[in-house]
């Protein structure tokens, strides 16, 4: 399997990378990193880069030309995208240093894939509480999230809208998220990807993980570690049909 990962320098995507490197079914990994030297002294990743199993390209996942350089040279079987900016807590809740980055990167990725006539499985990391899923959360989180995660969730709504529009087996939401311009929403690629997985983690923590997670589209859960979400994606979303064209909530 040739796996491409966007956002692998940290968080969930980094843990996907670590798990993938321990899986013999994943023989090649391609990374697009703004700072390609981030893994130079990483004892887990640096040897895989030296051996050629991991290929690192410098670039920004919101730029189509740089995504095309990553994806156009060789066929990719699965793409995992977990793009995000640096969060900061304010009186208005959490704000991100790169507003709209999830939406912008998803739009760029889908445009490149459509142009290349490429149809890999796309696994994207979103968040619990988006759209109709908000009503299924525990009451304290239903109260907390609209303040704490209002801005990041607007960005995730854009991400999910674009992926559902691009998926051939998922319905496109009726309402266009405010983070998307009308022209971008109208011209985004439509119904061409046969396999899409949108993973919706519960409230993310930085714990070491190694706990069993529960996953269901209507899962009732509070929190989960980034490490365990990464392992869930690597073990249960890259291969097999369990979560294809579904939107599982993942937590404890």
TrEMBL record:
InterPro entries: NAD(P)-bd_dom (IPR016040), NAD(P)-bd_dom_sf (IPR036291)
Species in which this protein is naturally found: Vanrija humicola (Yeast)
Protein name per the record: NAD(P)-binding domain-containing protein
Pfam families: NAD_binding_10
Domain NAD(P)-binding, chain residue ranges per copy: 7-137
Spans through the membrane: none
Lineage, uppermost ranks: Eukaryota, Fungi, Dikarya, Basidiomycota, Agaricomycotina
């Amino acid at each position: 399997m040739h796996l491409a990962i966007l956002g692998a320098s940290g968080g969930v995507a980094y843990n996907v990378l670590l798990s993938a490197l321990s899986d013999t079914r994943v023989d090649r990994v391609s990374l697009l990193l703004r700072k390609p030297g981030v893994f130079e002294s990483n004892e887990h990743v640096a040897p895989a880069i030296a051996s050629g199993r991991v290929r690192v390209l410098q670039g920004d996942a919101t730029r189509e030309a740089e995504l095309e350089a990553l994806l156009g040279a060789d066929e990719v079987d699965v793409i995992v995208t977990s793009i995000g900016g640096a969060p900061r807590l304010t009186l208005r809740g959490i704000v991100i240093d790169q507003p709209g980055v999830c939406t912008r990167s998803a739009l760029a990725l889908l445009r490149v894939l459509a142009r290349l006539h490429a149809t890999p499985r796309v696994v994207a990391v979103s968040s619990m509480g988006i759209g109709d899923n908000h009503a299924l959360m525990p009451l304290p989180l239903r109260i907390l999230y609209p303040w704490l995660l209002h801005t990041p969730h607007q960005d995730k709504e854009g991400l999910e809208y674009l992926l559902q529009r691009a998926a051939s087996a998922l319905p496109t939401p009726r309402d266009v998220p405010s983070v998307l311009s009308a022209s971008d929403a109208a011209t985004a690629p439509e119904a061409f990807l046969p396999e899409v997985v949108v993973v919706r983690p519960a409230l993310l923590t930085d714990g070491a993980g190694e706990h069993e997670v529960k996953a269901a589209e209507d899962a009732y859960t509070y929190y989960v570690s980034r490490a365990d979400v990464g392992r869930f994606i690597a073990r249960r979303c890259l291969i097999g049909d369990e979560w294809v064209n579904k939107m599982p909530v993942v937590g404890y």
